[in-house]
Structures are given as structure tokens and as C-alpha cells.
């Protein structure tokens, strides 16, 4: 069977949940070709997108990045 976006509906739902959990600072998408989630910072700082195949790890990295930004360690 040929792949279509509906096959990854669960991963897309996880991405939407991560985005809701981390509003207003992050937007998350499922990258189906790469098979990982990508998190994009939406705040004023320049932050390299975060990527992980584990949504719990990605969530933790998103929180850690915000802590580092608050401490002024990232710009």
C-alpha cells in the first residue's frame, strides 16, 4: 500500500499535543520522511530547530531550552 499522511495520524496528533503543551513558544510538526518530530521556537530569539524521534525527549529539550533562554545563555 502506498504511503499517505493518514498513516501517520498518531504522530501528527502527538505533534499537535506538544504544540498545545508548549504554547506560545513552540510549534511542533511530524516529519514523516525523517520519522521524527521537529520543534520550532516562535519567540524572539534565534534557536536551531530541535529534532527527536522520542516525543518525551523533545518535550524535555524544549523546556530546557526555555530555561537556558531565561538565563540568557542562548540568544
Structural class: alpha+beta
Mean pLDDT: 93
Q: What value does the Rg take, in angstroms?
A: 13 Å
Strand arrangement, largest sheet?
Answer: 1-2-3
Q: Note poorly predicted spans.
A: none
Q: Specify the helix fraction band.
A: 25-40%
- Overall 3D geometry? elongated
Largest sheet: 3 strands, antiparallel
Which percent range describes the beta-strand content? 15-25%
The run of helices and strands is HEEEH
Terminal CA distance reads 46 Å
Per DSSP, the total helix count is: 2
The number of distinct β-strands equals: 3
Keywords:
75 residues, alpha+beta, 3-stranded antiparallel beta sheet, 2 helices, 39% helix, elongated
What this model shows, in words?
With 75 residues, the chain is α+β, with helices and mostly antiparallel strands. The chain has two helices and three strands. Strands 1-2-3 form a three-stranded antiparallel sheet.
